[in-house]
């Protein structure tokens, strides 16, 4: 792995002062809930990856959160009916989001000093407040299942800043070491939601409004997730997508790695303001490498390249790689 100056190979157990969460670049796994990638979600958690992605549907029939790639009415995933550490790696799978969170909680009990892990949730058809599956219901579920292990927007605010943007620009992110044992939720609008001509109020805007309103009401501590601005774009994409009242509530940005690099976008904007930049489909950046089974050196070189382009997390379908590879963390350029 000589192609990149690693900070650590398998993060999570050191407690000395280290770099800020926003000053590092790590590796994540696309659609980590798929059984073809990991037989059980606990194995995805074992993988060393710093980001794991789940696709979530608000099921209008059962009024529950489903986890699946393309079936909004059923579960198709590696989350199992396991709530205790001793139940992991063997229970029935294809469970709902609540069970996925149960698995995370049980795994955390086995590994309380684990690396910080971002859970990227693509809300495939968005929220549905009418059915009781809106942002507040999501917050309640996550809080009930995971409690204090979630690093929340209010934690970044720290009782000091009036918006997430102000906190990020002030460098308020804790170090990776201080995030030991923590999980962070990122929310993005889903492909079905974006293709729906009757839906003009997507996950990002809805949760941004939610954060603004929670802060105004003095209840921001109940919010459990960070909404992301989706799609690679030049400059600050918030200015053309959101009204001024919610722009300061976006500090996560999520877009195609090849677009950022090949279009020559100035991504220093994200690092200078300490924003979190998720660069997806990292394998497709020129020169392309395997999206499933690159060599260890290729992964290291790709991590180094995209760290230089100011990514915070790069993602691909490299689930088969070892924890020593997926757990790599580099200085952000």
UniProtKB/TrEMBL annotation:
Any one Gene Ontology molecular-function term assigned to this protein's record: phosphoric diester hydrolase activity
Matching InterPro entries: PI-PLC-C1, PLC-like_Pdiesterase_TIM-brl
Species this chain originates from: Streptomyces nodosus
Swiss-Prot/TrEMBL GO biological process terms: lipid metabolic process
Short name of one Pfam family: PI-PLC-C1
Signal peptide as annotated in the record: 1-16
Domain of life from the UniProt record: Bacteria
Keywords tagged on the record: Lipoprotein, Signal
Stated name of the protein: Lipoprotein
Keyword check for Aminoacyl-tRNA synthetase: no
Transmembrane segment boundaries: none
Record has Lipoprotein as a keyword: yes
